[in-house]
Amino acid sequence: MILPAEWRVRYNYPVGETGTRFFSALREKKILATRCSASGLSYLPPRAYCERSFQPCDEWVEAGTTGTIECATIVTAAFENLPPPPYAIAYVRLDGVDTALINFVQGLDLSDVPAAARRLQPGTRVKVVFRDQPEGRITDFHYELID
């Protein structure tokens, strides 16, 4: 037996100093990453501490506006509070950063899902495109393929 139920919780998530700096920079159409001087690794999304050295990330760097797809998928099922399917998402390692950040891929013809998926292969180059009026949210930008 399955009993349908619904649980909705609204909350304010404190993003801390690191998150505040990241989201504030998005309003200026900048994507900031943190770097650990002990390990040399740069993190996006930014992290307060390095997972390799366990030291604080003590530098900020601006990520490039182009990057490389690490992995991607096309979502064909509907999920609450997300765009109507199909839509594409990808983890992208932006130039100058060591980790990948997920976001939507737009400007891709999704009418033929298998054909679109072939265009989202690892190694594919993309660019960052900001919306005209950024609000300090991860959805202030998306990725587009570089042809």
Automatic annotation (TrEMBL):
Protein name: DNA-binding protein
Coiled coil start-end: none
Residue ranges of every copy of the ChsH2 C-terminal OB-fold domain listed in the record: 60-131
Keyword DNA-binding part of the UniProt annotation: yes
This protein's UniProt keywords: DNA-binding
Gene3D superfamilies: 6.10.30.10
Name of a matching Pfam family: OB_ChsH2_C
Domain of life the protein comes from: Bacteria
InterPro entries: ChsH2_C, NA-bd_OB-fold, Thioester_dehydratase-like
GO molecular function: DNA binding
